[in-house]
Amino acid sequence: AVYMPSGTMTNQVAIRTHTEPGDEILLEQSAHVYFNEAGATAALSGAICRLIPGDRGVFGAEDMEAAIRPVNDHYPRTKLVCVENTANRGGGKVWPLEKLAEVKKTAHENGLKIHLDGARIWNAAAAMNIPESEIAKHFDSVSVCFSKGLGAPVGSALAGSSDFIMEARRFRKQFGGGMRQAGIIAAGALYALENNRERLTVDHDNAKIFAKGLAEINGIDVNPDDVETNIINFRVQGMTIDELIEKLNKQGTHVLPKDSITIRAVTNLMVSESQINIALDHVRNAMKS
């Protein structure tokens, strides 16, 4: 594996290592790689994205296979499949293991490599009560993040075969991610990895408490059954999301817009169950005002 400053860099170095300019990658239509990485696949790798419709970030092998280009000089070459688990914009949805196995089998049968954006692989493993290796074994490369749920100040890693990582180190250097004095920040990542994984289910429980509480507030639209890990997406009626966010900020509860109509809240190791209940009070107050 190789350590890098961010998950965006680990994803983009993986894509550059797997592809050549003009190649095409397949990914779900709301994937972080496509939606939240500043067009880096085109800018840094010269690769283009072909989007697969999915269910909250999850797609099936049949839909993926239908998107693979036939061999033809007029077409870009389909080279790589990217999967995100858990799916950020899908509200922390977890990929079922049988879906991963199907996608891997179909990808490899068609000569494609498969990369995991596993920024939240720790949450997926915790939700299913399995080792992370049971998820990672389905992929040719895996990106993981040590901040977010694990709580490290900074850092991600890209894992793969020794030959893959040797080439990835070259692209990390080209992208400006080589660090001689990485130990001080890697130490925080190591601490998070060794101490903060078992408590992730606490975040999941708090997210469910928050979602169930939101569902009882008039004017809030949320489905608690969609909350599988630590992300809650909800909508509001009677005011804009910007108005609600401002009212919550003034009370000390901080959330972010997912898009123009949806608010995203994320539980983490800095949020206790008692604070979840305070946040629900803040939402109630905001919706009444």
Automatic annotation (TrEMBL):
GO terms for cellular component: cytosol. Its cofactor is pyridoxal 5'-phosphate. Gene3D superfamilies: Aspartate Aminotransferase, domain 1, Type I PLP-dependent aspartate aminotransferase-like (Major domain). GO terms for biological process: glycine biosynthetic process; L-threonine catabolic process. Keywords: Lyase, Pyridoxal phosphate. SUPFAM superfamilies: PLP-dependent transferases (SSF53383). One of its GO terms (molecular function) is L-allo-threonine aldolase activity. It holds the Pfam family Beta_elim_lyase. InterPro entries: ArAA_b-elim_lyase/Thr_aldolase, Low_specificity_L-TA-like, PyrdxlP-dep_Trfase, PyrdxlP-dep_Trfase_major, PyrdxlP-dep_Trfase_small. Residues 1-235 form the Aromatic amino acid beta-eliminating lyase/threonine aldolase domain. Belongs to the threonine aldolase family. This is Aromatic amino acid beta-eliminating lyase/threonine aldolase domain-containing protein.
